[in-house]
Amino acid sequence: MAFIHKNYGSATFLLQAVSTADDKGSFVLQQINTMVFRSPLQLMNNWIYSADYLTRIAPTYYFLRPIPGLSGELIIQVEAAEKKMQYWRLTPFLEGRVYETVEKPEQAFEAAASFAKFTKFMSGADTNRFVEVLPGFHDANLRWKQLLLAEKRAKSERLAYAEDALCQLKAAAWIVEQAARLEKHLPKRIQHMDAKMSNVLFPNGLNKQAVLLDLDTIMPATVLSDIGDMIRSMAASVSENESDISKVYLRKDVYEAIKQAYMSEMSKGLTQVEIDNFKFSGQKMIHMQAMRFLTDYLNGDVYYPTQTAHQNLYRCLNQLALLDSLSRIK
Predict the structure, then answer these.
(1) N or C, which end of the chain is more exposed by having fewer CB within 10 Å?
(2) CATH says 2-93 is which class?
């Protein structure tokens, strides 16, 4: 067993098994982070319903499926210290490569096509079967209210440092209003909800489809979520942790690759309102993430891990620069 990764509240291990029959395989053993996901069983129900549905309607589409235990259970519950429950699951380990960032537009094209295919194949699924595992996760109006509350409660020193960022966010408040209006006219579709490059695996070998990873957040939402996430995370020139704001811009070639790939898979299934708001999807998600970073900064850095005193402020300014760059794209 090899240790792969650890976050606060979760851990991941690589298991390599060899039997006497020379039957070997590799698996990923992962602890579900209950600090983030309060209902692990509902999370797994979303995942399994998706897997079962895709097996029926798109049998050649590879979708990662948890491996059941001897009694058929998909989650192993373990009582840990202080009688707190831990939840673990097992999935196949797939050989391949994951890119943390987009190195060339072709990679963004393949990743965007993978997210689009998932939503397209899930278009006939019963959204009522899904639980919103992270309520309000991409609710711009909720994030706006949280920001205003954080502004009221913030210490004067941090408020002074954040003055420029607050002014920029408030100047772009029209995005929050437009997102709220659109929510009334856009259909709910099954979304990945964390559509970034590092959540796509490119398997070894030719002609093998890209595989979606990190499926905990699957739930109904509008296409603003996945499209916006891809634009924000894949088309940025640098990561959200870059503090030199002069280096931040939106790569138009990557943006166009995302748009071309998504539309090639989904255009026939999208409404005209969804198509018309492709660019706005990015504006909404970038502005919302900027709000989240500044809210955490004003609250004293209680959510996002930081290495420097003003990192969340610089993350916010980073996103605001990205938002400005996107607004210039025709």
Answers:
(1) C
(2) alpha beta
